[in-house]
């Protein structure tokens, strides 16, 4: 009887701790740290950390302190939207350094494994429309379509020459956190009609939207995507000003939006938002 009583006591403590953790996650805050271009660090209400498109060490807009990958601290998961260097960036090095999985387009990850850049256990494959829960049942990550390209440029260590390899298809991600807050990282994309479906089906609360133009949507196109298709509560404009062709600005984006219920945060690299 004493043993049974002790067992029930242990089980009760475990259940109580789990319920307390869930309640804390429900009431906690979401933190989004922008690090330039499309690089963001998301800290969930439950304390899980997801890094997306960590182009940091060679990013002219990344604050100097974050050019040291150690400054990111704990990272639980890495997402990459496509194989271009300003998005894949430091992701493989970060994955190996921290022994953290890096999810990206299936073709890109397969090439990275084949080329010996990453071991297969750090480059799990998924594809558009797929949903995973790598950090427990409270966080869902869904891969979505993006309208762009994704060739992988790789330097052959034997020849010293640059080679182009399969990079899969570009993607975006919907990240649903423990409290139901949804973030849509759009990756690099042009305007496309299925953004309306993404808005209606996934109902993102916050969009991270490229506005620079040339390679991605310009401020006018980004405004159409935001106001007419996605209709989020909040928007963080990014992927502008890093290189000369990316001429769009948050001010142009906000002017093109006009009268809308979406709150725009024109923050600088190194600044964070809390929700």
Describe this structure in words.
This protein has a single domain (30-268), classed as Ribonuclease Z/Hydroxyacylglutathione hydrolase-like (Metallo-beta-lactamase, Chain A, 4-Layer Sandwich), CATH 3.60.15.10. Helix content is 27%, strand content 23%. The chain has seven helices and 16 strands. The chain has helices spanning 2-27, 85-88, 91-98, 106-114, 195-202, 219-230, 250-257, and strands at 31-34, 40-43, 49-52, 77-79, 102-105, 125-126, 131-132, 140-145, 152-155, 162-165, 171-176, 182-185, 206-210, 234-238, 263-264, 272-274. Helix 5 (195-202) crosses helix 6 (219-230).
Instruction: Give the CATH class.
Output: Alpha Beta
Output the CATH topology: Metallo-beta-lactamase, Chain A
Rg to the nearest angstrom? 20 Å
Q: Which overall shape is indicated by the principal axes computed on the Cα atoms? A: globular
Per DSSP, the total helix count is 7
Secondary structure: helix percent: 25-40%
Oligomer state of the chains in this structure: single chain
Beta-strand portion reads: 15-25%
Biggest sheet: strands side by side, in what order?
Answer: 6-5-4-3-2-1-16
How many domains? 1
- Average residue pLDDT: 92
Give the strand tally: 16
